[in-house]
What we know:
The protein has helices at 14-27, 36-42, 63-72, 100-108, 181-184, 267-274, 287-290; strands at residues 2-7, 31-34, 56-61, 81-85, 95-96, 113-117, 120-125, 131-136, 139-144, 151-157, 160-167, 169-173, 196-202, 212-215, 220-224, 230-234, 240-241, 248-252, 257-261. It is α+β, with helices and mostly antiparallel strands. It folds into two domains: 2-117 and 256-274, Rossmann fold; 120-252, Probable inorganic polyphosphate/atp-NAD kinase, domain 2 (Tumour Suppressor Smad4, Sandwich). A six-stranded antiparallel β-sheet has the order 8-7-18-15-10-11. A six-stranded antiparallel β-sheet has the order 14-13-12-9-16-17, with no helix packed on it. It starts with a strand and ends with a helix. The relative contact order is 0.15.
Amino acid sequence: MKIGIYVNPTKKEATSALQTIITELKKHGMTYLLDVEAGELIGETGSPNFFENVDLVLSLGGDGTMLECVHRMEGHFHVPIAGVNIGTLGFLTTCTDENFADYAKHLANDGLRSVCIDIIEVEMKEIDKGVQKFWALNEVTLMRGLTGRLVVIEAEIDGQDLTEYHADGLIVATPTGSTAYSLAAGGPIIAPGSGVFVVNPICPHTMSNRALVVPNTSVITLKADDKEPIRFTADGRAVLKLDTSYPVTIKSAEQKLQLLQMPNSTYYEKLRSKLGWAGGLNQLPTCEERS
């Protein structure tokens, strides 16, 4: 088995964590292909195409590193991916470098659980450039530029008028992205496999404008008013100046991304641990205790 490895070199633990992972992979007879930055960390030759001709990609960092890794893979979503957390939240990651030995054992014995993740495919036009296509694991965001004024965005679902948003911006998120920027903007948490997208305005001028959940079979078309500059970003990567003469088209990508999880890892356990949820009905104080 050959593993592609992508690393966030800015993490202070990156070098030691990478060395630990390589040691564990070798124990199980697995080979690896490093990305350029990972190779520089340990004095080996890396490749910008670390995701090609491998059986699995490991992303070493945090959630942001995972998103950057997906974008670097340039649509090669047939390759499963797993995140090793040396960051902070690590909602998308599978394990930490400290328990990677257990992960490697499960990997060698085909004991990992595969979770299919929806991906957004979006087409837009940047000012002074041609039409571009992007993929997003979390969300696509249209937002106001350098002014403090609201932007105006007309939204259509499958060719049917939805509304005209007057807001700081608009987020279209996947279930994976529902615990990211969309959640911070007041959107709902959506479980994986729900088959939906969330259309969520950022600080809307009209209080009745709320997050809308739509089927992921929908085609979402956004047309922005050209009176104010509008920025575009996919997963918070590069922030581009939107050419408002061309609509932004958002739909589900044909391929899904495979995340390889530990067999005992569940989405709801992650909600409890990563978001700090605690307690239950059986932990509430009794009437006698409250009195």
